[in-house]
Amino acid sequence: MAVENVLKLAQENNIEWFDFRFVDLSGRAHHISLPASEVDEDTFLNGVAFDGSSIPGFRGIEESDMVMMPDPESVFIDAFTAHPTLNIMCNIFTPDGERYERDPRGIAEKAEEYLQTSGVGTAAFFAPESEFFIFDDVRYQSDVNVSSYSVDSNEAFWNTNRKEDGGNLGFKIRKKGGYVPVAPVDSQQDIRSEMCRLLEEAGLRIERHHHEVATAGQAEINFRFDTLKLTADNLMKYKYIVHNTAQQYGKTATFMPKPLFGDNGSGMHVHQSIFDGDTPLFYEKGAYANLSEMALHYLGGILYHAPALIALTNPSTNSFKRLVPGYEAPVNLVFSKGNRSAAVRIPIASVTPKGCRIEFRTPDSTANPYLAFSAMLMAGLDGIKKKMDPRELGYGPFDKNIYELPEEDKVGIRSVPASLEEALDELEKDFDFLLEGDVFTADFIQNYISFKRAEAKDVAIRVHPHEFSLYYDC
């Protein structure tokens, strides 16, 4: 959308505020609002100043001045503000006009530019399946003398005997029993439909929504694929709208991977493919899962670099509470057609040539989407460049339920790292593929590793409530 069209849109909708947004290393959005009377074409040329030293992982106080440069293609009207507001995603620049190398959205742009100059294709398409929980109550505390959390949901199986106003009406969701039941067991049809309505108003094309496997309000909404940066923008809109719709309903939504012990966690399965113009490059009729050699090399790169990638696609300590066998978590670094126990699945149901794709099932929504999608693309392109054949590298195909294989048959199957620290160790050893085309820089990687190690240490040094169960009577 041209700048003049953005200003026209604002005028036609009586916009009072322009909300300029950017994304930090963790994938959280930040914003500064300007009155509509103060926004003109010069604002889009000169940007909006902000203090980069107040954003964790950005810059020191001695070089804190930074500039948000608005992207007029990213605008959408905010559905949650009392005063009409137009939201705009921004890229980050230094005051001298240089692209800031630690800007996640800028990295996504560079990844797309690298693809186009590589000669492989013209566009990479991504489609994340970002699962989440809708709770009725959440409480947590971490202090010198207390460490606790509690979540609750009217749907949860542990509430079958709870006294409720008007009586307990039953119809709770059993543990691991939440996959697509109808109402009244699924009590969240309307809130998900409202989320979808608002997402469509914000420009996303919704494909479907449903209840997910876990008890206590696990949900999934699927939106249409798009190019790398635009899909990351859409995922930021998605999380914003999910969080705020839940808040309006008096509920709370979380994309935390594992808020419940003993039930399924929330993942972000990422579908991806490459096109050359209108021609899909991942399709070859009659091949295994109708997958082209290029697609096999791409997924070979994903699996080869997966231990390092996971530091970017599963970047929280909680991520590794989900990545354990037995809860549909894809911990095995192999590929397969239609097999949800493999880290890389090739969907085969109702797939057209243009719909032919791979699905990396390991990631979760604590990932910064700009960084995660860029890193996956770079790993895949490295696989194409080096012709990494996953069959020769021992990554499959495995068309059996890997969870149920005898231990002797699992010999040689690599698993994901067991912790965030292990994933960061892997990234420290294997990041050269991310530096191609200056998409990521060594400075960014080193800063990111330090930033995430600090998070891991914060968790590791704290007393865990379960330790009282294990050791208090020692």
Automatic annotation (TrEMBL):
CC cofactor note: Binds 2 Mg(2+) ions per subunit.
Positions with a binding annotation for L-glutamate: N264, G265, R322, E328, R340, R361
What's the name of the protein? Glutamine synthetase
Q: Report if keyword Ribonucleoprotein is assigned.
A: no
Report the residues modified as O-AMP-tyrosine. Answer: Y403
Name the UniProt key words of this record, in alphabetical order. ATP-binding, Cytoplasm, Ligase, Magnesium, Metal-binding, Nucleotide-binding, Phosphoprotein
Q: Per the UniProt entry, what species is this protein from, by scientific name?
A: Paenibacillus kyungheensis
Catalytic EC class: ligase
Reactions listed under catalytic activity: L-glutamate + NH4(+) + ATP = L-glutamine + ADP + phosphate + H(+)
**Which residues are Mg(2+)-binding?**
E129, E131, E212, E220, H269, E359
Q: Which residues bind ATP?
A: E207, F223, R224, F225, H271, Q272, S273, R340, K354
Biological processes annotated in GO:
glutamine biosynthetic process; nitrogen utilization
Query: Which EC number applies?
Result: 6.3.1.2
- The gene it comes from is glnA
Location relative to the cell:
Cytoplasm
Q: Which InterPro entries match?
A: Gln_synt_N (IPR008147), Gln_synt_N_sf (IPR036651), Gln_synth/guanido_kin_cat_dom (IPR014746), Gln_synth_cat_dom (IPR008146), Gln_synth_gly_rich_site (IPR027303), Gln_synth_I (IPR004809), Gln_synth_N_conserv_site (IPR027302)
Principal subcellular localization? cytoplasm
- For whether the record's keyword set contains Ubl conjugation, the answer is no
Give the top-rank taxon of the lineage listed in the UniProt record for this protein: Bacteria
